[in-house]
Design goal:
375 residues, alpha+beta, Aminopeptidase, 2 domains, 6-stranded mixed beta sheet, two-stranded antiparallel sheet, 9 helices, 16 strands, 20% strand
């Protein structure tokens, strides 16, 4: 073999070796950067104090008229000074800041549909000492005001936002109605519409859901076309939205609805939240926390500050396993049935669950603290 041919053989080996050394050095450098970033984030988390809950003081709430006002374009231009306000204590009057549990926070989660009805209302808590979270879903068809034509929780937001009161009034009305159910106003609120839902699901790279049954529903009026097959599958935001919105099959077809109707839909909503949390608990997600916080801040309406969001996002690093998040649903004690399907809760059942899971106070709430509509 000629020297020329030998050079042709040995030269690639030398290049390959140099390439391996280069790649190894590059990998080590990237690994070192990643370690420094993670260490910096964790150090930041240890040096920043937990956010204090909002101070216990009367909340300024717009007064909702006895008859809900339908919003129009002209309503948006109404002078805000013409709206009447009242001040409401956010918990039983005997409770003060001194009665709060340490490192314990509560959150009101409101999911709006296109018509600004609250399809999802949940109250969550996070216990920083135990590293545990609880999530309670309140059915959307629960009656929350007996004298306003049997108004349901689902319509609280749109009832409060009409007449020029806007988003502030909508959130305030949901806070007021939720307080009647659970006895207090949660510390923080998060309002999520469909656009925010899309953004958050896509930000975590989608989720894996085991669809329990064939889901087929078409509603041209709502521009809704749900078409899911049973089995474990990866879902992007659009598919996940179909999953959480499905309740009944298309009328006039053999496609079944969910066995327990809206209560199974509530459970599916909880499953999606649990899966999002699981995605956030992945080690690689730690590096994306600043990105997630920015997306969350840009996508949702909330009274959480960016430092608040960063703190709670980093707290996820301390949470291990899905057992850290427990989900519950306040099941009605009775329903009016067809055609209105109004739902009524048992105050005793509500009280037991609230005190066991999301009560932010050192002392138990009592039946006198609730204003649950029972008939």
């Amino acid at each position: 073999m000629s020297d020329k041919n030998q050079n042709r053989i040995h030269k690639p080996h030398g290049t390959s070796r140099r390439m391996r050394i280069l790649l190894k050095s590059f990998s080590i450098t990237l690994g070192a950067i990643a370690v420094m970033v993670v260490a910096g984030i964790l150090l930041w988390n240890r040096t920043v104090a937990p956010p204090p809950p909002p101070p216990m003081e009367a909340i300024r709430l717009p007064v909702t008229p006895s008859v809900p006002v339908e919003r129009t374009t002209d309503d948006q231009d109404e002078d805000p000074e013409e709206v009447e306000y009242e001040y409401v204590w956010p918990a039983p009057e005997r409770f003060t800041d001194e009665d709060r549990r340490d490192d314990f926070w509560t959150f009101l989660i409101i999911g709006l549909n296109e018509g600004q009805n609250a399809n999802t209302v949940m109250v969550a808590s996070y216990d920083g000492a135990l590293k545990e979270a609880n999530l309670i879903s309140i059915p959307r068809d629960v009656i929350v005001h007996p004298t306003r034509v049997g108004r349901r929780l689902a319509s609280s937001y749109i009832a409060g936002s009409g007449g020029g009161r806007g988003r502030e009034g909508g959130i305030a009305q949901v806070q007021r109605d939720v307080m009647n159910v659970i006895g207090f106003v949660p510390d923080f609120y998060v309002v999520i519409d469909y656009d925010a839902f899309f953004t958050i699901i896509d930000a975590v790279g989608g989720i894996y859901i085991d669809v329990p049954q064939r889901m087929r529903y078409v509603d041209e009026y709502q521009d809704l076309d749900i078409d899911l097959h049973p089995g474990l599958q990866h879902m992007d935001s659009e598919t996940a939205l179909q999953f959480v919105r499905f309740r009944q099959g298309t009328r006039g077809t053999n496609y079944p609805g969910l066995p327990r109707g809206d209560f199974d839909r509530v459970r599916n909503q909880q499953i999606v939240i649990e899966e999002v949390v699981n995605r956030l608990l992945r080690p690689q997600s730690l590096l994306q926390i600043p990105e997630f916080v920015e997306i969350f801040n840009d996508s949702v309406d909330t009274n959480l500050t960016i430092p608040n969001m960063m703190y709670f996002a980093l707290e996820l690093n301390s949470v291990r396993g899905t057992d850290a998040l427990s989900s519950y649903t306040l099941l009605p004690s009775r329903s009016s049935g067809h055609p209105t399907y109004e739902e009524f809760l048992s105050p005793q059942v509500v009280l037991e669950l609230v005190n066991r899971t999301i009560n932010p106070f050192e002392h138990a709430l009592e039946l006198r603290d609730l204003n649950v509509v029972t008939q």
